[in-house]
Design goal:
The chain has about 325 residues and is α+β, with helices and mostly antiparallel strands. Helix content is about 30%, strand content about 20%. A 5-stranded antiparallel sheet has the order 11-10-9-12-13. The structure holds adenosine-5'-diphosphate and magnesium ion.
Length: about 325
């Protein structure tokens, strides 16, 4: 089934008329920060694809493109309604990739619950919904969990509003979760997986369902520090070959995504205290792909884009 889906979307052969004129969709606030844009535009040019770098939050005619490729729309969490309505409009003008149903599913970390139910080893997560008695849930959580914990929004990116707290910081935890919930947001409560401090997290990047490359990202949350105030927390990236158990978990996670094979995906893993890789995030909307960190990655992605046949845009 998934093999069929892949074949359908990635027909092989040199003469495939795939995407020829595409928009690489960024945000005004991210345009100068996205390090993937330049190598990707170059690789696309080399592959004979015309690429235009356009911000979602600027006025454009989105029709006439073979594909609107979501890249660095990194400010969407703070402008959610505006962004989703843009995505709906844009996807009626031209094929949005990854597609709107995937975007809707992936924008909210509740998808981790669905993947956990499908048997994927996910970072242990308690969802806090508006109206939850946070102090009571936290007390129950601390009965059996960890020295430190993380509270972060269900719809969030770039570590914004993510807070690492010691178990003694109960009041701060209740206050932070309370603020998110009072704003109508759902939140995630997780044990802080402290091996990330030494080992970092591993991000595995897939194009058309095929593993392309992986990197190491150093731990981002400092104990006792407030949440980042920038568009995203500064990241320290280095080379890392994914271990076989990480590759296996990443493949299981991708196989459990309830859609056809995404053109691009990034799977972020952290090892738990027993050393088991656990899914922290599966990113199908606007992940950095760290193309400059892996020789050949930009060309692989460009080739996949060229051969990809998106589902037709819904007519206006
Ligand atoms: N449970 C956790 N254990 C350890 N580190 C975490 C945990 N949750 C988040 N982090 C840290 O916070 C960063 C941001 O969290 P993440 O879940 O990736 O959200 P997003 O990137 O969407 O803001 C991660 O890259 C990691 O460094
Ligand atoms: Mg992340």
């Amino acid at each position: 089934m998934r093999g069929d889906a892949l074949q359908k979307h990635l027909p092989h052969g040199a003469d495939v008329a795939g995407s020829r004129r595409i928009a690489l969709v960024t945000a005004e606030a991210a345009r100068s920060l996205d390090e993937d844009l330049s190598p990707l535009a170059d690789a696309l040019h080399h592959a004979g694809v015309e690429a235009h770098i356009l911000a979602w939050d600027a006025a454009h005619d989105w029709s006439g493109f073979d594909m609107l490729l979501l890249r660095s729309t990194w400010d969407y969490a703070a402008r959610l309604a505006e962004f989703v309505s843009w995505a709906e409009r844009a996807s009626r003008a031209a094929p949005l990739v990854n597609a709107l149903p995937m975007l809707r599913w992936n924008i909210d970390k509740h998808y981790l619950g669905a993947l956990a139910s499908a048997g994927v080893p996910v970072v242990s997560t308690t969802f806090l919904e508006p109206g939850t008695d946070v102090a009571a849930v936290l007390a129950g959580f601390l009965d059996h969990e960890c020295a430190e914990l993380v509270i972060k929004p269900a719809i969030g990116a770039g570590s914004r509003d993510a807070l690492r707290l010691r178990r003694a910081d109960r009041a701060a935890a209740v206050a932070h979760a309370g603020r998110l919930l009072a704003a109508g947001r759902s939140a995630l409560l997780q044990p802080y997986l402290s091996r990330v401090d030494e080992e970092g997290e591993t991000a595995l990047i897939f194009f058309g369902g095929e593993f392309s490359h992986s990197i190491r990202k150093a731990a981002l949350l400092k104990s006792g520090a407030g949440p980042t105030t920038g568009l995203f927390a500064a990241e320290t990236i280095s080379a890392r070959d994914a271990a076989p158990d990480e590759l296996a978990v990443a493949r299981r996670a991708l196989a459990a995504v309830p859609f056809a094979v995404p053109l691009y995906a990034r799977v972020d893993l952290i090892r738990d205290e027993r050393g088991q890789p656990r899914l922290l995030e599966l990113e199908l909307i606007e992940p950095s792909l760290f193309l400059a960190h892996a020789p050949g990655a930009a060309a692989r992605f460009a080739d996949c884009i060229r051969r990809f046949t998106p589902a037709a845009a819904v007519p206006l």
